[in-house]
Amino acid sequence: MSRMLTSIFMIGSIGYFAYRFRYRIINVLLGSSWMRRLAVGSMMSLPGVKNKMMQSVFGRPSEW
Questions:
Q1: N or C end of the chain: which has fewer CB within 10 A?
Q2: Is 53 within a domain?
Q3: Helix or strand or coil: residue 21?
Q4: Using alpha carbons only, what angle is made at residue 55 by residues 49 and 58, rounded to the nearest 5 degrees?
Q5: pLDDT 10s digit of each residue in the chain, 64 long?
Q6: Domain containing residue 33
Q7: How many domains is the chain partitioned into structurally?
Q8: How far is residue 12 from each of residues 5, 16, 20, 26, measured CA to CA in Å?
Q9: Does some domain include residue 64?
Q10: Three-state SS for 38?
Q11: Can you give the pTM of this predicted structure?
């Protein structure tokens, strides 16, 4: 029983600190160029994200 409580406490503690320092963790992870390339590549492979990104960057085609 105490082993289960200890594991629940540890998971909760890790979750709390990961949430508290989430932006620092993201900055450390994305500081590496290959991790940044992997993250961008995986996000751009999702169709909805890619369409939204392309629309916001290039805009919609103008209609005459």
A1: C
A2: yes
A3: coil
A4: 130
A5: 889 999 999 999 999 999 999 999 999 988 989 999 998 898 888 888 888 888 888 876 655 5
A6: 2-58
A7: 1
A8: 10, 6, 12, 19
A9: no
A10: helix
A11: 0.54
